[in-house]
Amino acid sequence: MRFKSQMRNVSTFAKFCASLSSLGPIAWCRLTDEDMRFTVLPEKGSQVWSVLKIETVFETYSLQSAAPHNTINLEVPIQSLQRALRSASGATSASIRLTKKNNVPMLSVTIVTTTFSNGDSVVGAGATGTDDEFGDFDFHADTDDVGFGGGLGGLPRERETIITQDVPVKVLAMQTVEGLHEPSTPEPDVHIYLPGLAQVKSISERFTRLATATKTGTTTGAGPRLELSANMHGSFKIALQTDALSISSVWTGLVNPELEPTNYPGGSQELRDHPSTRMRILGGEHGENEEGWARVRIDAKDWNRVLSVGRLGVRVIACFMNETGLVLYVYHQGEEDNGEETCLTYFINSFST
Amino acid sequence: MDNSNNPIFTAVSSSVRQVSLLLRCIGFSPKAEVQITTDGLRFSVEESRAVQGLAFLERSLFSSYTFNAASDTATSSPNETTSSPSFQINLIALLETLQIFGLSDATHSSSRNPNGGFTSPYAHNAFNTPALAATGGTCRMSYPYLGAPLSITISEAGVTTTCNLNTYESSTDAGFDVDESIPLQRDALTLKIIMRSTWLYDAITELASTNPTMLILTASGHTTPLFALEGAGGPFGDSVVDFQPEPSRTPKSGLSSNETGKDEQARAPWVSETFTVLPGSGTRGTIRQRYKFAHIQKAARAMDLASKVCIRCDSQGVMSLQFMIELSRDGIGVGPARDAERLNGGGAGGAAAARVSFVDFRFVPLVDEEDDEDGSDKENESFCVDMNGSTASGQ
């Protein structure tokens, strides 16, 4: 069993892990030849199934195991991995590999950073050597000090630091993970592109605070719940109801993505019978009818944790199953994207009233 | 219900932040009493009948303001301006709503400058922050009929937030009147000081470091300390902030422009613009009152925000702090003389100019238990003796 890889987009990977770690401490990671999958299945709250395209974060990728597609299943403490990756920000190179130390399997992150020491340090004593060159280059008044370092190969002033971070993991047997499947969901009643997650998050958090601030002592132990709803006419709503107030924020002018008929065995005929088509008609000509809204009630804190994925800089499609649940498809678009996208799928259950 | 076509009150404000900042000055208690009048909205907050905060949102703060007092609703109003019966709302909820677009916490702690003074209140006037222009959403308030929720709608950048705050019948049957809640006898004032609010804010902040339980205010027209604030009852000892008189290069001239010049010895602390002490008989020219420190601290946000404060005490020891908060964004300065005049006018100025708003606080004094039945004169006397003993430390 072997895994070794050179990372090229460490900050994205770190943010990705940070988004996952907000949901739960342990992630199930499946490495295969094609992709890298992370799944967080918390005891309570939303679960996330994500696919990370190899080229999104890895430069080189070598994987070897006895299982088909060289599959390796790991149990990763996701927060530790995220912290390890965080120290790699600004590194010249970073690699990750699966090792074993004292019989404990580890994900070992090796980070090479280059630090420029200033003239005050001991290493800066080498600067006496550069003094002569300083004279030589004196004519180029616009060349700054750093430019000299680069021009000279930077040897006297540069130091290389190698950091190794070991994250203990657990290797999972094939049969342990066999029973795990993505939840199957009914076809959505409403699907819609969400507005910027940062804005949604700030409003959701404000609502959560409102709920706690205005809560009277007699309410049950359950946390505050938000009602999310959307229709097929480009509107998305977050609402909160407490004893003291009712508040709602409505976004309008959002886009409901068109469904691709080729994705359905019944083709365009099946699309005509699709729940979302029905909801669009129920919503009336301009979405003025209340029947056109699909609603879910979710735990506010859980929702805020999910929204932390916004730091990835993403596009989000929300699929509402009326009164049943909400699925969020979160797409991360890299800079050089060729349609291959990293996708995180969040499954959020709705509470009944 | 029948008035739904003709709502009691609607208003639109294009600057949510000004409203929000004023209301946050009195945001020390969740329940606020609201009264709608033809001149504006009056928000009042009180705690255990001992401290009261009042903010008045003038109609000039709103770009449109409509108030239709039904004839039957105006009966309880004691003033000539018509008003609706007051109701209670959850102030915390209202404040959170007004900040929905991350009109972020204006954490402006006044910083000292090295010369021992304080940052000018004009320098950190929160309303001048350039970032504001971008965040000032439109806010629409309405109160359609008696008993209806107070509805607030904020629109910005494609998002519309609607908040319906449930209204509660106010606890008092009679129409809300600030002078009845904590009465300040305007005809029996013993003390009146107008000064920059930052001086007071800094003094209170300074005193708070010893965690005192009460604030002792001492004022005298003749002897030092002219004006001193003492934090007493803290676990680590007491501390005094003494506002010194102006160093007298020209003796006895002082701030002679003030009306204190009844006798030639009258002096005023350097910081004050107006300083009047009119102690009652038998008090030996000194006023000494005690207040619960925690109560005074509730006005801290207003102190920080305001440019000027008017401190008044009446013969019973009730203290009023009236804060003048400048809302101007257009940079037109308000002359100090005019401010003083306005503050002299007292009252929650219904006729004040658009760029100035007032927030009022009233405090009930602490009374010594043993002196309680002896009447105020005796009480003051005992204070006075007490004070003479400790004067030396004040200097």
UniProtKB/TrEMBL annotation, chain A:
* SUPFAM superfamilies in alphabetical order: DNA clamp (SSF55979)
Determine the domain of life of the protein's source: Eukaryota
Predominant location category: nucleus
Which UniProt keywords are given for this protein, alphabetically ordered? Nucleus
- Any one Gene Ontology biological process term? mitotic intra-S DNA damage checkpoint signaling
User: Might you report a single GO cellular component term?
Assistant: site of double-strand break
Q: Where in the cell is it found?
A: Nucleus
Which family does the record assign?
Answer: Belongs to the HUS1 family.
The name of this protein is: Checkpoint protein
User: What organism is listed for this UniProt entry?
Assistant: Endocarpon pusillum
Automatic annotation (TrEMBL), chain B:
Q: GO biological process: what's one of them? A: DNA damage checkpoint signaling
* Positions of region (Disordered): 241-266, 369-395
Q: Which coarse location class describes where this protein primarily resides?
A: nucleus
Q: Give compartment(s).
A: Nucleus
A Pfam family annotated for this UniProt entry: Rad1
Looking at the keywords, is Transmembrane present? Answer: no
Keywords on record: DNA damage, DNA repair, Nucleus
The cross-references to PANTHER family, in alphabetical order and at most eight, read: CELL CYCLE CHECKPOINT PROTEIN RAD1
The protein's name in its UniProt record: DNA repair protein rad1
